[in-house]
Amino acid sequence: MDKKRTWIDQSLCIGCQACVEMDETETLFMDENGLADAKPNKLQLVESQMVCPTGAVNIDED
Ligand code: SF4
């Protein structure tokens, strides 16, 4: 199964796009509903996590 180490809690996302703009790996994207989502990844996108105003960006531990 494809895991998402960095993942978005869409119940908290307000669609500001800040996390996507900060993500140089293009792992995060805006979905068809205007909310952020993540492709399967093993990344720790800390900058995107820090810039999110609602705490919707989560990073799993190993
Ligand atoms: S920064 Fe947070 S609120 Fe803004 S689009 Fe990303 S996950 Fe959603």
3D structure, described in words:
The chain has 62 residues and is an alpha+beta fold. It has a single domain, classed as Alpha-Beta Plaits, CATH 3.30.70.20. It contains 2 helices and 4 strands; from the N terminus they run βαββαβ. It has a two-stranded antiparallel ribbon with strand order 1-4. The chain has a two-stranded antiparallel sheet with strand order 2-3. A hairpin with a 5-residue loop joins β2 and β3 (36-38). It is globular. The chain starts with 5 loop residues before the first strand and ends with a strand. The mean pLDDT is 97. Bound molecules: iron/sulfur cluster. Residues 8, 13-19, 36, 51-54, 56-57 line the site of iron/sulfur cluster.
Features:
2 helices; Alpha-Beta Plaits; binds iron/sulfur cluster; 62 residues; alpha+beta; 18% helix; two-stranded antiparallel ribbon; two-stranded antiparallel sheet
